[in-house]
Amino acid sequence: MNIRSIAEFRRLAQVRLPRPVFDFADGGAEDESTLRNNERAFSRWALLPQSLRGAAQRDLSIELFGQRLQLPVLIGPTGLAGLFWPQGELASARAAQRASTVYCLSHGSVCSMEQLAQGHAGQRWMQVFVYKDRGFTRELTERAKASRFSALILTIDNQLLGKRERDWVNGFAIPPRFGPRELAQYAIKPAWWWAMRQELPKITFGNYVRPGEPQSVAGLAGRMGSLLDPAMNWRDVEALRAHWPGPLLLKGVLHPEEAAQAQKLGIDGLIVSNHGGRQLDGAIASLDALPSIVDRVGSSMPVLLDGGIRRGSHVLKALALGARAVLVGRPQLWALACAGENGVYDMLELLRDELDRAMGLCGLEDIAAISQARPILARADLI
Ligand SMILES: Cc1cc2nc3c(=O)[nH]c(=O)nc-3n(C[C@H](O)[C@H](O)[C@H](O)COP(=O)(O)O)c2cc1C
To answer: How far apart are CA 234 and CA 109, in angstroms?
Structure first.
């Protein structure tokens, strides 16, 4: 594909997808101020290049939980990727494998974790929630272990569903409805409709169909909502820690106190995130929350970041502020909608190229040099 920026992937996805599907990915909670602020936060920091350091070739690889990745950009967990492209989760996971990075499967994927594991030999992490039925949380983690997911992500900012008004307006629903309004919306997007025609009736939350239960899609979305538990607390984190022996990350951490508590309980990594502005509108931008969390937990605990990454220079800024790696959410879905596996691969390669270029222009020859040269950054409003 000859796409030059993530913004262009977004524009093409908008052309290709029916509005309710595009808005489901693109939108945020309420006034979408956190969503916008996630992106804007990057322009509040400026790079101070040291061109004469001499970085003829750049090494973008990192080590995370004992595994080597060739790119410090992971594919973050996004529910319903299979709505954007047939077998979307598998397509994205294979693209991540080709780019030598990690794919994180959402609890709310269309394909189940077992199906993903069958078709994907790369590095994969599984994301879960804490449910009112704690036995179900445990069951999901058992299944993740059996399917050889190498790390577990507990998302902590989704204990209630955010108020996503675009979805209300569009009547977005899972399973998809096929009333006159929806059919009219699909008809004007024939390429997507044609590609998805056999998939649509099967769109569901693959991990929520318990073995042995009838596969009734109708009740699943409601069930998922009722399974989330606003009473989730640190005892649940401790229980999960005791149950999952591998790397365990908390996703949705914004407060330094919470970061410190997680560290005390033996959590292996943090993902500084506000769910891409889809949950608490008014929450701090991820990038703004990052420095005090990194200061608080120190360098022994990997801190990752997501939210608003749209350029290689954004990756560089996040790493310079102490993130060990970043994750992308929407860019993956836009790229998937444009060209499936190849689209996601191209999107990752585009970020790789931009990051490489930015590092070269800053005189940084590898990722370690970024953290050593942290003063490359200054608040843009101070310059
Ligand atoms: C359509 C969509 C679905 C998502 N589903 C999940 C999910 O199931 N679990 C989760 O932890 N985060 C989910 N997220 C949040 C992403 O993992 C990530 O935090 C966010 O998208 C990062 O912001 P970005 O989209 O600006 O990259 C979802 C995001 C989107 C856009």
So the answer is: 26
Q: Which two tokens stand for residue 327?
A: 């994750």
Q: Which of 152, 119, 150 is closest to 138 using CA atoms? A: 152
- Taking CA atoms only, the protein residue closest to ligand 1 atom 11 is 155
Q: Which residue has the tokens 């410090």?
A: 72
86 CB-near residues (< 8 Å, 6+ apart): 195, 196, 198, 199, 340
Q: What is the per-residue pLDDT across 339-371, written as a single tens digit (0 to 9) for each?
A: 999 999 999 999 999 999 999 999 999 999 998
Is 113 in contact with 150 (CB distance < 8 Å)? Answer: no
For residue 328, give the 3-state DSSP assignment.
Answer: strand
Instruction: Give the residues of the chain that fall short of pLDDT 70.
Output: 211-226, 373-383
DSSP string covering 205-225? -GGGS-TTS---STTHHHHHH
> Token pair for residue 275?
């769910």
Q: If you measure from the C-alpha of residue 99 to the centroid of ligand 1, how many angstroms do you get, rounded to a whole number?
A: 20
Q: Annotated catalytic sites, by residue?
A: 275
pTM exceeds 0.90, yes or no: yes
The encoded tokens of residue 205 equal 């939350």
Q: Is the CB of 329 under 6 A from ligand 1?
A: yes
- What CATH number labels 9-42+59-356? 3.20.20.70
So where are the chain's domains? 9-42+59-356
pLDDT digits (tens, 9 = 90+) for 141-151: 999 999 999 99
Which pLDDT tens digit goes with each residue over 30-77? 999 999 999 999 998 999 899 888 899 999 999 999 999 999 999 999
